[in-house]
Amino acid sequence: MEPEAVDIPYSDMYAGAVSFRSGSDFQSGPSRLADSPEGSRRDRCCLGECKRSLERSRSMTAVLIIILTGLLIWTFINTRIVSDLAPSNREQSSAPYSLLIPMRNEEKNVDRLLASVQKLSSPPMEIIVLDDHSEDTTYEKLCVWQEKLPLQIIKGRTLPDGWVGKVHACHQLAAAADGDYYLFIDADVELHPHAAGAALASMRDSDGLVTGFPKVPASSFLGKLIIPMQHFLVYAFLPAAAANYSTWPPASAAHGAFMLFTREAYEKTGGHESVKQSLVEDIHLAKAVKKNGFGVHLVNPAPLVTCYMYDTNREVWNGFVKNFFPGLGRSYIAAVLYIAAFTILFILPLPLAAAGLFTGEYLAVVPLLLSVMIKWLSDRKSRQPWWTALLFPAAAAASIAVLIRSAQTQLSGKRFHWKGRSYS
Question: Which residue ranges does the record annotate as region Disordered (predicted)?
Fold first, then answer.
């Protein structure tokens, strides 16, 4: 005969579980845990710690949302203050300006640049190109172009001690120029037909310099991360109103690939000779222009000026390592602040958002969305692909890596290398 089945509640079965302690007596497991003061305290501590951790996470999220919302508004305002360079009815087709171009090992860029110069709607009164001891076919290509354009080709002098190569080349170009305006451009630039005329038209009566950050296409992965960061720093952090409407030197930005000076302002500041040792001569020249009482008009030339800066990951790395720490004034304090700010504001939101999605704290995703929106505003202004904003945490991390390497080079006493030359 089969024994009669008896239904026993699961809770009663669990309560019947026993544990053996030191070979003495049997005691029900749950009763022991429930009655143990140590177990209760441990449970309460665990619960309290989880609660405090959640509160800290929420507080951090709230602080990030406040800061990033403010930065988003600031960036939006800056992108409106910095006006786009665009064709204008005020273009000065007869303005006497000199187009000045330094070149060193630029054989791959000569044809593209000079073909665009040939199409300018406001042609320069003179085009002066300096070949700075190129080791490729730059000079030969320039000679061919002399049959198509009224080029004046200068063979650069030997680089003196205490000078940076490009700065010395620009100094020689200015000494040979006769225009009322000096338009310095890099050899890797391509000009829209209205670029020069629009820049001249944007020159205000009080201005000594018109400059801005061109569109910079990137073909390498590291380039897509780091190159747009130079525009981001301007639009997200520069006080653009002070940059454009005051002569306060600290509120200055410039890009050496496109700088239009009045002759008066250039000569009064001492020109490139006054910044002969600078690796970031563009910024130092802009500050010098302001110190001498002239205005600097920061524009967005991206619609009309394209600069093909670097082709490979190595070129991107070496180029920004050369400029990054010097661009911060070689200040270790500024470098530490940059690293801390970019880590907290632009890298931390990614793991915070991931944790929020995992735990159901969806508000934690907002800081990441805000940071991407800030980057998108900058990328949109500088004509970068929209999807590069999605790589922002990686871009911020890459920029920190470049800065650390740049500062480390300075700290170790090593020299910065570029185009076969080295600088301290």
Answer: 23-42
In the block, residue with structure tokens 């080349």: 169
Going through 189-294 in order, the beta strands assigned E by DSSP cover: 189-191, 207-212, 258-262
**Model pLDDT for residues 145-171, shown as the tens digit of each residue:** 999 999 999 999 999 999 999 999 999
User: Is 261 within the bounds of a domain?
Assistant: yes
In a domain, 416, yes or no: no
Domain match, 344 and 297 both: no
| CA–CA dist 96, 94 (Å, integer) | 6
SS3 248: coil
Residue 10 inside a domain? The answer is no
Residues 72 and 136 reside in one and the same domain: no
CA 141 to chain centre: 33
Is there a domain that residue 343 lies in? yes
Q: Is the pLDDT of residue 133 over 90?
A: yes
Radius of gyration of the chain (CA): 31
Report the SS3 class of residue 82.
coil
Q: What spatial distance separates the first Cα and last Cα of the chain, rounded to whole Å?
A: 99
Return the closest-CA partner of residue 384 out of 218, 254, 212: 218
Using left for φ > 0, alpha for ψ between -120 and 50, and beta otherwise, residue 36 falls in: beta
Nearest to 383 by CA among 258, 213, 160, 131: 213
Ordered DSSP codes for 322-344: HHHHHHTTT-HHHHHHHHHHHII
Range of the domain at 375: 67-76+324-410
Report the b/e string of 380-418 with b at 16+ CB within 10 A: ebbbbeeebbebbbebbbbbbbbbebbbebbeeeeebeb
Q: What is the pLDDT of residues 49-58, one digit of tens each?
A: 666 666 777 8
Pairing mode, if any, of strands 126-131 and 151-155? parallel
Length of the chain: 424
